[in-house]
Design brief:
two-stranded antiparallel ribbon, 22 helices, globular
């Protein structure tokens, strides 16, 4: 069968599975809609958490970032993995003992203030919409290549699907769908990683293969990473394994981004809510342990796949005649995610350091003298003629290495599973924030179960539409868009959650001022540097890492304001004390 037929078959089968699970697990009450009734087994919740956690950024973009950035790209891997450990060990069990549905619910009750609840609610919506935009872009990229539709159409198809099983099944449907999606995405990531490792190095274990020697070709017998270092310097890039130096990110920026991703993880509302779906605190800890194992399977293989992708892409394209490039090049060129501008009119693809032209490719529809599609963009004064979007690397490498069509189609299904699983969790956060935290807890305490469910489902639809818009008009690569969401989470939720659990003197005034200061500074910096053309002015820290500074400001303001304002009521301080003191692993009490 052709790749097209395999793609329709495998993607269609997985979509039918997700829709069937969501329909079978549809809910009729708010507890089922928000926290799956609190009865999910730890193993299943661990798989669902891993799927929720490993978004399109993890599956599609992280290995691509590593393949282009080399050692520095591992800040995404270290930040996200370290952040999950931080969340699982430091925060999740205590939040589960509080027994709240959402992060704004926790903030509102812990800080005894509707104002704090509203500020947390606004932060949760901003974070979730930013994050889900990255997922929608990932869906569009997969559809645009493998189903041969444009990116915008792909985003809209994903919007319809994720709305269906999020609105119908709620958290219960999403959880069991995510169990299936984890199985799909991990299979789709590991099979090509093993196959490519075996083909390039003869080693079937990718985590060991990328430190091994190359099996055949002109570089046979050479270590893969040493070869990448040499190729990189020959083409004007930094050495692949160089930590810091010319052509790489400064140490301070790498530290800031890693820290931002780590603490941002611990403040992500769609991950935190997963620990409310299990029956006991012990089950929450156990599901966190399972999730870490499931996450590690992909995260330890990602650097290897990034190195394999880098080596195969350069060998396949650099100094090749455009007239003889394989069919996969033309297929990706149609999506606008791969482009060639023949600057010297020799018909040969030259890949070097630097941007090939200003902006992203805008094709004129004309054909040049060597057959390439003509690009309207203004040329940049360097010798590089090739534009490669980071987000295609994981998806394109199986094609480049000529793996069977069913493997390539499986990778497409895995990318969709990763994006849709996270998008569903994020949309539920948006819905619960508005229907539960705003409407029910503040506006109308007498609202019926039916009315709250209806508002929740309407809010899922509104969230899908907004996310779809930003998926069609994204502010960066998938991993970069997601990194911005982590910056917002680290600067708003993390300090408030940590102080709320471990410092009973933290007050509502401190929490409100801290959240506004942290996310306000971070948002301002991101808007300035991403959309207004302002150069990073705070010690050169990029917008992806500025959340670390926002976090520090949040901590400082919350701490300072809390000390000069009236202490929390005795009942609140007693509640904080009781949550921190271990009292067995019994079921948490819902308030």
């Amino acid at each position: 069968m052709s790749l097209q037929m395999w793609t329709y078959l495998i993607v269609g089968a997985t979509f039918a599975l997700y829709i069937g699970i969501a329909w079978g697990a549809r809910v009729k009450d708010t507890k089922g809609f928000y926290v799956a009734g609190g009865g999910i087994p730890p193993l299943a919740n661990g798989m669902a958490t891993a799927a929720d956690w490993m978004s399109a950024a993890s599956f599609i973009s992280m290995a691509g970032m590593i393949s282009f950035m080399g050692y520095s790209g591992c800040m995404y891997l270290m930040g996200w993995t370290g952040g999950y450990v931080l969340l699982a060990l430091l925060l999740a069990p205590y939040l589960r003992k509080f027994g709240k549905f959402t992060v704004p619910d926790f903030v509102g009750d812990r800080y005894y203030s509707s104002g704090a609840r509203v500020v947390a609610l606004i932060c949760a919506i901003f974070i979730s919409l930013t994050y889900v935009a990255g997922q929608m872009r990932g869906v569009g990229i997969v559809f645009s290549r493998f189903l041969e539709v444009d990116v915008n159409t792909g985003v809209m198809i994903g919007m319809v699907l994720v709305f269906f099983y999020s609105a119908i099944g709620g958290m219960k449907g999403i959880t069991w769908t995510q169990v299936a999606q984890y199985c799909v995405l991990i299979t789709a990531f590991i099979i090509p990683a093993v196959a490519i490792s075996l083909k390039l190095t003869g080693n079937p274990i990718p985590q060991m293969g990328f430190g091994d020697t190359i099996l055949a070709g002109p570089d046979a017998g050479k270590y893969l990473l040493s070869t990448l270092n040499q190729i990189g310097t020959d083409l004007g890039f930094a050495e692949y394994t160089t930590a810091f130096g010319p052509g790489t990110k400064p140490m301070l920026d790498v530290f800031a981004i890693t820290m931002c991703l780590m603490v941002g993880t611990a403040g992500l509302p769609h991950v935190i809510i997963r620990f409310y779906t299990v029956p006991t605190v012990r089950a929450a800890r156990l599901s966190a342990f399972y999730a870490l194992i499931f996450i590690a399977l992909l995260y330890t293989a990602a650097p290897a796949l990034g190195a394999f992708a880098r080596y195969t892409l350069i060998n396949a394209l650099n100094n090749q005649a455009y007239s003889s490039v394989p069919s996969w090049f033309a297929n990706w060129e149609k999506t606008g995610l791969l482009a060639w501008m023949d600057k010297n009119n020799d018909g040969i693809i030259t890949y070097r350091a630097g941007a090939a032209f200003k902006g992203k490719p805008i094709f004129s529809g004309e054909t040049g003298q060597h057959g390439q599609r003509m690009i309207k963009n203004e040329s940049v004064d360097n010798t590089n003629e090739l534009y490669i979007d980071n987000d295609i690397m994981v998806l394109a490498t199986p094609e480049i290495t000529q793996l069977p069509p069913w493997v390539i189609a499986l990778v497409a299904a895995g990318g969709l599973a990763a994006a849709l699983s996270t998008a569903a969790g994020l949309l539920l956060v948006i819905a619960s924030s508005i229907s539960h935290d705003l409407y029910y807890r503040i506006i109308n305490r007498e609202a019926s179960e039916k009315k709250r469910l209806l508002i929740g489902r309407i809010m899922v639809g509104v969230g899908v539409v907004i996310a779809g818009y930003f998926g069609i008009n994204p502010p960066g690569f998938v991993a970069q868009v997601v990194a911005l969401a982590f910056g917002l989470a680290s600067s708003s939720f993390f300090p408030i959650i940590v102080l709320g659990i471990f410092w009973k003197r933290a007050t509502k005034e401190g929490a409100i001022c801290g959240m506004i200061t942290g996310i306000g500074f971070t948002m301002l910096y991101i808007v300035q540097t991403k959309f207004m053309g302002v150069s990073p002015w705070f010690f050169g820290i990029s917008p992806e890492g500025i959340g670390t500074v926002g976090m520090v400001l949040n901590f400082a303001v919350t701490f300072g304001v809390s000390l000069i304002t009236k202490a929390p009521p005795a009942a609140v301080q007693e509640m904080v004390e009781s949550v921190r003191i271990p009292r067995g692993a019994g079921a948490a009490v819902d308030h």
